[in-house]
Specification:
heterodimer, A: about 300 residues, alpha/beta, Rossmann fold, 2 domains, 5-stranded parallel beta sheet, about 25% helix, B: alpha/beta, 5 helices, binds flavin-adenine dinucleotide, binds adenosine monophosphate
């Protein structure tokens, strides 16, 4: 059976995870890099069977190459095409899916083969369930599964694809870098604070915990928008920053999906909440059921002694 | 500009009740508009100038939702199912869009729960498309779109017709009042069926049902004795290798 896969790559996010998921289906795995040559070179070290590079021109967004990438995909006729959920990647994926006449499924966490079909398991009900979907034909999937560290002992040569000048229908005018909240995006440990904190004075407790843990501070949207205790570059979630610390301690956070999608890639999530029904307890590794005003002071001493 | 604003009423996946055996029960769950759809109307209103916004939806939600936020009229596909295969759902939306002549922009919510429909629609229309859009403006007749890229934002100039997927970053601020809603209900509505669009209910893709993921549930620690709770947590974190 043709189990050839294409993985559309616009940055390194989830590249190892997508490679791993596609490899498990057994066929040849091609990386279609749409971006810089340097990106293609580093992708070539991950263990793909083939690396194609659609080199983009300065000032032209990757999306402008969508049709060319889709034509090349059509010629290669892969059974499976994956992209991460970045806005650029999924737009390119849509273009390829249309050319291949493929089924499109989002939020896919696992892939398997069953007879002649691909079974895609996508997350549903706010991550509480997986839905298994049997796809008999070509599948384009937005991959949301675990990222996996990948590397290979023998890098493959990058094949430069012929690209035509996409013209001026899309061009970049400027990139505005947000003022970064020092270190939050790359921090190994983060304390997240939610509306469970009763007053601004109590932030002292969070400061002390962050200091004891050597952690950065983050917050939920209402803590910034309604309380104005933090600037918006400290907000974590679907519409703000995505972070991937080793350890995230959520204090007084209910765990709404818009917040949780910002910490999806955190390794270990601890929640402190006094509501046994809090949604976050369905979505964390360790849940301390209790009053944050009693638990956090003890956490501070525990980290001071051990952390 | 002539703009089609796609909006959606559906059951939010996080509201479905999860049964003991990993089933999902939708009974009694209310339909809600998509979180991002207010941003769709904001972007549409920002660039429409003296043109027209046409609302487009599938199913039986509040048909006047877009009309109450500036759409002049609304198209609704009455008998389409939301399909497991997002390409099929997108094909319904694309077919309805193609009935309208001279469209300059299609704006759709950038999907909070599942990006499939947006991606598939962008591909099927084949127009220049930008996702993650937070705002747009017309400057000297040209369309300027600002989108989020990680923590940075990027300003793009795009020549139409275009597809934009707009992303909200908070709840809707100025929801329309009763007066606008009542007025909106008088605006024209065009009801379309799958047959009108030349589409047959399709799909060789089938769901085999839902199940619990293999990931273990959270380990709950009773915080009544905070000292003991923290001790237990620290031991667990140490064995996980994160301390
Ligand atoms: C379009 C859109 C985009 C959004 N984007 C984001 C985003 O990017 N990031 C984000 O965070 N949110 C976002 N939101 C908001 C999101 O939906 C939630 O409203 C928000 O995350 C809730 O914040 P919270 O958990 O702090 O507050 P709440 O939901 O109010 O939770 C507070 C929690 O504290 C607990 N608590 C109270 N007292 C105590 C105590 N003494 N001890 C222990 N626990 C206590 C309560 O049990 C409760 O669970 C967005 C919303 C929309 C509509
Ligand atoms: N069944 C549908 N009817 C109308 N619009 C839809 C439908 N499914 C998805 N969409 C559009 O796709 C966007 C993303 O939806 P969702 O993926 O559910 O967040 C919504 O903002 C809608 O505009």
């Amino acid at each position: 059976m043709n189990m050839k896969s294409w993985i559309i790559i616009i940055d390194e996010r989830r590249a190892g995870g997508m490679l791993d998921a596609a490899k498990k289906l057994g066929g040849q795995v091609t990386a279609a890099v749409v971006g810089s040559r340097a990106l293609a070179d580093s992708i070539a070290k991950l263990g793909f069977d083939q690396v194609l590079c659609f080199e983009t021109a300065e000032g032209i967004p990757a999306e402008a190459y969508a049709l060319q990438v889709a034509e090349a995909a059509k010629a290669a006729a892969p059974r499976l095409v994956l992209a991460s959920d970045s806005s650029v990647g999924r737009m390119l994926l849509g273009s390829v899916a249309a050319k291949l006449n493929a089924t499109m499924i989002g939020a896919v966490r696992l892939l398997a083969v069953d007879g002649e079909s691909i079974v895609a398991s996508r997350s549903t009900a706010d991550g509480k369930l997986l839905e298994d979907i049997e796809v008999p034909g070509a599948l384009a999937a937005i991959f949301d599964g675990e990222d996996v560290e990948a590397s290979s002992t023998k890098p493959v040569p990058v094949e430069l694809m012929p690209v035509e000048d996409p013209g001026t229908t899309m061009r970049m005018v400027e990139t505005i870098e947000a003022e970064e909240a020092a270190g939050l995006l790359t921090a190994a440990r983060v304390v997240g604070v939610g509306v469970g904190l009763a007053s601004k004075d109590d932030l002292k407790l969070i400061d002390d915990l962050a200091a004891a843990m050597h952690a950065e501070k983050a917050c939920t949207l209402p803590v910034c928008d309604d309380m104005r205790w933090f600037p918006s570059n400290r907000v974590v979630g679907s519409s703000h920053s995505q972070i991937a610390p080793e350890l995230y301690i959520a204090v007084g956070i209910s765990g709404q999906p818009q917040h949780m999608s910002g910490i999806r890639d955190a390794k270990v999530v601890v929640a402190v909440n006094n509501d046994p029904e809090a949604r976050i307890f369905k979505n964390c590794d360790y849940g301390i059921l209790g009053d944050l005003y009693k638990v956090v002071p003890e956490l501070i001493s525990a980290f001071k002694n051990n952390g | 500009m002539k703009i089609i604003a796609v909006f959606k009423w559906s059951r939010n996946p996080q509201d479905g009740r999860v049964g003991m055996n990993g089933t999902l029960d939708w009974r009694g769950v209310k339909m809600a508009p998509n979180d991002d759809d207010p941003a769709v109307m904001e972007v549409a209103n920002a660039i429409v100038e003296d043109g027209e916004i046409i609302g487009l939806t599938i199913g039986d939600g509040d048909i006047a939702w877009a009309a109450a936020r500036g759409a002049a009229r609304t198209m609704v596909v009455t008998d389409a199912q939301t399909e497991t295969d997002s390409s099929v759902t997108a094909a319904v939306i694309a077919a309805a869009i193609k009935r309208v002549e001279g469209v300059d922009a299609v704006i759709i919510g950038d999907s909070v729960w599942d990006y499939g429909v947006v991606s598939a629609l962008m591909g099927q229309l084949g127009w220049p498309a930008v996702a993650g859009v937070v705002s747009a403006a017309k400057e000297q007749g040209r369309l300027r779109v600002t989108r989020k890229m990680g923590t940075a934002s990027q300003v793009l100039e795009v020549e139409g017709p275009v597809v934009l997927a707009a992303a909200a970053n908070r709840e809707e601020k100025n929801a329309p009042g009763m007066k606008e809603v009542l007025f909106a209900r008088k605006k024209p509505v065009e009801r379309l069926t799958m047959a009108d669009l030349g589409l047959a209910p399709a799909g060789d893709v089938s769901s085999k049902g839902t199940r619990f993921p293999d990931t273990p549930p959270a380990r709950m620690i009773d915080g009544k004795d905070p000292v003991a709770a923290c001790k237990e947590l620290m031991a667990a974190l140490r064995s996980d290798g994160v301390l």
